[in-house]
Amino acid sequence: MIDLHMHTSRCRHAVGSVADYVQAARAAGISTICFTDHLPLPGGYPDCYAMGADELPAYIADVHEAAALSRASGGPEVLCGVEADWVPESPPLIAAATASLGLDVVLGSVHFVEGWAFDDPEEVGGYQDLDIDGLWARYFEQVCKAVASGLFDVLAHPDLVKKFGYFPEADPTDLYEETAKTLAAHGVAVEVNTAGLRKPVGEIYPALPFLNACRRQGVPATMGSDAHAPGEVGAGLTSARELLLAAGYDSVLVFRSRVSQEVAL
Ligand SMILES: [Zn+2]
Ligand SMILES: [Zn+2]
């Protein structure tokens, strides 16, 4: 099994060290893991979601050291990536950071709509009296902009906007189709992310109709637990595999030095 998405305590909203995660992955029999701590956000955004810019070199060094140790002791394979939050101000920061860090993969994600951290449990009051159809439209508009930016290898948790179970009244099929076409046009993979199973919505990101749309457009997929604690490494990946098979996928991608390779499911 491959798990291409996890966070350490450096992210300020997760627990566990790199070594703790490697140990958990080994115990769970996972063959390849990739660390994807958050890149710092631009100025003006809260600093509680990501490491500070000065911590990036130590993060990379920690993961590379753990990779070497793990290689010498029988695995798992340890890869080094980041999750880069898309906000309108972030492209120069993301481009500069990812060009210089020697990463294996760059996940792109949308956690903010017009400055609101819509997936933060502390901010959930913002859903009160909100036009959910409008929120979904604005969320997917940002997702498509992120995908089209050319900054990312993978779109992480593609329908994160459903996290607290607020679904639009209008059929979201067009939003899924548009996003799938944008992914295909820009050569970006879609992530099947199991964190949603552990959130109020209780389902994987993306929903099966969304993943079906990606499959029809020939968009490749990755999978990840988005673990925020060592005990979550690999969580739900059996369900992710089932969802991928249901959508017609027979492989997922793994990225090394930002070059993808297919691995059979
Ligand atoms: Zn995320
Ligand atoms: Zn994440």
Question: How would you describe what is shown here?
Answer:
- The chain has one domain: TIM Barrel.
- Helices cover 33% and strands 17% of the residues.
- It has helices at 18-28, 56-72, 91-100, 132-148, 173-186, 208-216, 237-246; strands spanning 2-3, 32-38, 77-85, 105-109, 154-155, 189-193, 221-224, 251-256, 259-264.
- Helix 3 links the parallel strand 3 (77-85) and strand 4.
- The mean pLDDT is 96.
- The chain binds zinc ion (2 copies).
- One zinc ion (ZN) binds next to loops.
- The site of one zinc ion has 5 residues, from loops.
Question: What's the topology here?
Answer:
Elements: E1 2-3, H1 18-28, E2 32-38, H2 56-72, E3 77-85, H3 91-100, E4 105-109, H4 132-148, E5 154-155, H5 173-186, E6 189-193, H6 208-216, E7 221-224, H7 237-246, E8 251-256, E9 259-264
Parallel strand pairs: 1-2, 2-3, 3-4, 4-5, 5-6, 6-7
Antiparallel strand pairs: 8-9
The protein binds zinc ion (ZN) (2 copies).
In brief, what are we looking at here?
This protein is α/β, with parallel strands linked by helices. The chain is 33% helix and 17% strand. The protein has helices at 18-28, 56-72, 91-100, 132-148, 173-186, 208-216, 237-246, and strands at 2-3, 32-38, 77-85, 105-109, 154-155, 189-193, 221-224, 251-256, 259-264.
Number of domains: 1
Approximately what portion of the residues adopt beta-strand conformation?
Answer: 15-25%
So, CATH architecture?
A: Alpha-Beta Barrel
User: Count of helical segments?
Assistant: 7
Number of strands: 9
What name goes with the CATH superfamily?
Metal-dependent hydrolases
What is the arithmetic mean of pLDDT? 96
Helix content: 25-40%
**Main beta sheet:** 7 strands, parallel
